[in-house]
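ok so dumb question maybe but i'm new to this and my supervisor (M.) told me to 'just get the structure for DUF2304 domain-containing protein' and walked off. so i did the thing. is this what she meant?? sequence i used:
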Amino acid sequence: MAVSISVVLLLLILAVVFMRNGALKISHALVCMMLGFYLASTSMAPTISNGLTATADLVSGLRP
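this is what came out, is it supposed to look like this??
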């Protein structure tokens, strides 16, 4: 578990650096994809999923 969280934090930091750099290359996209896979296997996955679902429900309920 501790190793998984360490990898998630490392990949998160790399993804933020790549996004701030402004040039998303193939290697950067692969790091972001690996971050998603590692996040999906952590205990944070249900919380992230519930948050995204709530946000999607909120946005879909808005009227222009």
